User: What shape does this take?
Amino acid sequence: MKGRLVAALIGMSTLVAAPIAAQASHYRLPVDNFISPEETAALEKAGVSTTLALLDQVSTPAKRQKLAKATGLSVARLTAMAAQVDLLRIDGIGPSMVRLLNASGVMHAKQLAQASSSALFAKVSSTNLAQKISMVTPREALIAEWIGAAKSLPQVVEGLP
Assistant: This one.
């Protein structure tokens, strides 16, 4: 009994200590003010019920074309969704921050990676003040972290502007 307990504790400590690849937040559909209930119904009929599954199904222009046929959603809308769920791969960015970044001119992770933290902070702050998208405006240091994370992410969505 004691031996099994020790083995279990060692196994648990290995799990805790083992490096885990950063996985940002993903959500079940629908996502408020992000993906509508109507779009969710169409996506679910095609077997897509989470933003992570959506990311997989919209990662290439060919996949977006196939999903457009299966759902009746336009390729343009699926491309916009692809860009939005691409940003969700970054730790700390959820749907409201995606909306705020989009309103500030950052549409996907590659664009975020190319941004200046001070310039983006100024834009995000003024956008949020004017449009009240989020209850909290991210600090410049957090935006800098997002930019760093975006730079280290592999590109998984092809064909974004």
Observations:
- The first helix runs from residue 2 to 17.
- The chain has nine helices and no strands.
- Residues 2-23 have pLDDT under 50 and may be disordered.
- Residues 49 and 66 are 17 Å apart (CA to CA).
